[in-house]
Structure formats: structure tokens, C-alpha cells
Amino acid sequence: MARTASKPIRASSSAAAVLASSADDAAFATTLAKGLVVLEAFKAGATQLGNMELSTLTGIPRPTVARLTHTLAELGYLRYDSERAKYRVSARALRMAHPLLADMQFRQVARPMMQELAQSVRGTVSIGLLDATSMIYVETARSGDVGPHVPDIGMPISVVMTAMGRAAAATLPQADAALLEERIASEDTELWSVFRGTYRAGLAQCASRGFCTCFGEYMASIHAVAAPLFHASEARQAFSINCGIPAFRLQPGQLESEIGPRIAALADSIRAIVGAAGPIETQKQNKKSARR
Question: At what angle do helices 279-291 and 189-209 cross, to 10 degrees?
Fold first, then answer.
């Protein structure tokens, strides 16, 4: 049975959020959703979890969690450590990411250029993909010592607090951008209240200068700049590219006058190689379509 047209697809929300709002959906596979909620409970800082910990984190009763973790272990997605009586995500989970990453062939094209810039500025250069109110790293390059924040593929960071998030939002069609703001505001009213002005200023920076800045809003010791990459309309994917540098390595004004233009130029180069439209071109196309 297909989902009705009046009910929006919420695949980019967390499994827990979708599960909580789907009690009236007869087509919704609750047991499958609970299994995915359990998998999503594992993250950096919580790589080994027992059934009681998972029950506390997810709100799913412990007997149900025990059945889910046993099944996931049998399928190879979790591995059980009998000495600690805890589970950890197993290698098979990586297979789930491969089809998505393999479909982003521009990452391989971009990586040598990203590595060159990262080494030049002694920082990190990463590509991120918008996922609900988070950015997910899908490619990254770095020099040696880059400070406390070491990006890695699959790592999530905030949209509203980061240059990478604001730059990705700048690629969105107007209607999608408005929906993103609504979602951020509804998920964390206090966070939106604090960062709304900075977030919107970042969108304006992207429109006027081709990049936006972040002076430690996400992590005090790291300053960053990011540029919009492109919006893949068919897949509904929004990408941006950023450069993060330990604050102590930057001279006053260097982020805006030097690093920002360089990350914007890198974004231009990547788009030219892969034949992708920039955010300005995408927005013009969206306006033309809306008038038809």
C-alpha cells in the first residue's frame, strides 16, 4: 500500500521521530522502524551499548530491544561482545552507505583539489550533504594537525550552527528553504532563536559573495568558511563544501579575504568539471518553472 499523497515523506527525519508520528499509518512497518531506531542510537561516544542502555536511549522496552539486537546481530549489522554484554555496529552496516556514496562520483574528482587546499591552509576541506537539520560529511581531506574537530565520512553536524549547513541551504529552491527553516525552528526553538540571525546572514553572504563564514559558533576553536556546491533536484540532494581551520592559525580578516574566495573558487571548479549548475543558476531555473 502506497503512502497517501497528503502525508509527506519524512525519510530524512530520524527513525525515532518518524516512529513517534506514525501510529495512525496502517502501512508503516513498526518493527522495522524500531530496529532502525536501535541502529541510530549508536554514534560517536556511544559505540558500545547494552540492551538496557539502548532501551533508555530509545524509549523502547528492554524485552523488545533484546529481540531487535539479537536479530540485528544474527543479520550481521551488530556484533555482540559477551565479556562486556554490549553490542557495537558491525562491518555489514557499511554496505548500506556504499550505494549512496558510489552515486556521488564527483567526490573522487574533487578530492585531489580538496587535499591541495587543506594542506595549503593547514586545515580541513570537506563536502557535506544536507539531511533534515544536519549536514553529513560525504568526503573530506585534511592536513596534519587540524585541532579537536576531525571530520570523517558519515559524521553529522548542525545545519543552523555551521557555515557548511548555511551554504547547503543556499542551494535550495525557495519552498524547500522555507520548509528547512520551519523544521529547524520546530525541532529546537531555543537554538533557532539564538542562531536565526546568523543563519540568515550566512544565506545572504552566499548570495552576495559565494561563501559564508562561521567564527566558532559550532566549535569555538575552529573557524570555517563554506560555499554552496549544487542542488541535485531529482535526488533532492543539497551539497556544500567547507574549509575549517584552527582559529589560532588565522590572521585577522584572513578567513573573509583569502580562504573564503578560495573555497568559492574550488566550488566553481568542481561544478565546472561535473557540469553542475550553481545555486544562482538553479534558483533562476526554479523561478522560470514556477512561472510556467
Answer: 100
pLDDT surpassing 60 at residue 162: yes
* Interval 92-107 mean pLDDT: 92
- 8 A C-beta contact, residue 240 and residue 164: yes
Other beta carbons within 10 Å of 193:
10
d(CA 278, CA 85): 50
Q: What are phi and psi of 198, to 5 degrees?
A: -65, -40
Is the Cα torsion angle 145, 146, 149, 154 positive or negative in sign?
negative
Grid cell in block for residue 162: 555551521
Q: Which residue has the cell 543479520?
A: 75
Share of the chain above pLDDT 90, in %: 76
Say what percent of the chain tops pLDDT 70: 91
Distance from C-alpha of 182 to C-alpha of 31, rounded to nearest angstrom? 29
**φ, ψ of residue 156 in degrees (nearest 5):** -95, 145
Residue in 126, 114, 39, 37 with CA at minimum distance from that of residue 76: 39
End-to-end distance of the chain based on CA atoms, in angstroms?
33
74 Cβ contact partners less than 8 Å away, ≥ 6 residues apart: none
